[in-house]
Amino acid sequence: MMTNLEKYKKIFMETFEIAEEQLENLKYQDIVAWDSVGHMGLIGTLEDTFDIMMDTDDIIDFNSFKKGIEILAKYKIEF
Questions:
Q1: Residue 2 · residue 10 · CB < 8 Å
Q2: What's the CA gap between 5 and 69, in Å, rounded?
């Protein structure tokens, strides 16, 4: 069984086709794949995986790998 952190990392790596080493400091628009379309794909996959519905403000504030962990904590997702 995967931990929530493993699931979270896997979603980023599969959505943006990047290596785990790139995740730690990754920010919105650091890579070509993380544009507005990629962002909505990421959010959709996170919502499906963790069975949540994120608020618009949180979707907008979700601007880095680290920030995403903080935001998901608001939805009772533990890392």
A1: yes
A2: 9
Look up the pTM and report it: 0.96
Does residue 57 contact residue 63 with C-beta atoms inside 8 Å? no
CB 65 within 8 A of CB 24: yes
Alpha helices for 1-79 (secondary structure H) = 4-16, 36-50, 56-61, 65-73
Taking alpha carbons only, the member of 29, 31, 3 closest to residue 17 is 31
Query: For tokens 């785990």, what's the residue?
Result: 20
User: How many residues would you count in the chain?
Assistant: 79
Q: pLDDT tens, position by position, for the chain (79 residues)? A: 999 999 999 999 999 999 999 999 999 999 999 999 999 999 999 999 999 999 999 999 999 999 999 999 999 999 9
